Amino acid sequence: MSIDVRWGSATHRGRIRDRNEDAVLAGPDVFAVADGMGGHAGGQVASALAVAHLAAIRGLADAEDPGSVVRHGLLGANRAIRERGATDPAVAGLGTTVAGIARTPDARVVVFHVGDSRVYRLRAGVLEQLTEDHSVVGELIRAGEISPAEARHHPHRSVVTRALGVVDAVDPVVRTVAVEVGDAFLVASDGLCNEVDDAALGAILGAPGTADERARRLVDAALDGGGRDNVSVVVVAVAGTRGGDHLDVDTTPSHHATAG
Ligand code: MG
Prior knowledge:
By secondary structure, the protein is of the alpha+beta class. It contains seven helices and eleven strands.
């Protein structure tokens, strides 16, 4: 049994930054955001390399272990970013977060991340964050020292503890989760999550509309919240299962596809 998904995406440089160092990958098999860092053009180069490697992943549709396929892609991206940093002084020190989901041959998705970009799942009106930020404030939250609300305004909220391009032995978090018809996944850079609280994220993600419309509304909410960073969003709605009961939650023909 495979899943039908509808997806949409949006990205914006925000109200303060003069360029957008985020990159977005919107399907058909992998959905991701990458949030680049580094001086000059380094951030843009790193995030673009990350999504290019994820877009080049093949074999998910018949993979016995789709998680290992995704992990391999992430390690390839890490190597490419490391090599670029070592050979191009103009982008030395580049790196990027990445987070996303990938389709599998069955009714599951691979959830992956490195850094503080996030994956959420909205199921039956309940928003759950599926990733744990690799960041200084993420560690402080897990240690019980600050609240998520305090983290959104913390002076070190952008300091990540894990990223692609920083060390050879990067350790991506990759796991596989079951999906249900009606689930909606949200993949986002910290420029969304630092401006919009979880209650608002869940309300916008669960509102009627196409995945594209919901992605744009989420970006608009981040801009309304201050837009202090680049903001990128991918929304993936599970519309049905192939051969099973079909429930349309989204009807965007141009963004429709069937897995495996
Ligand atoms: Mg950011």
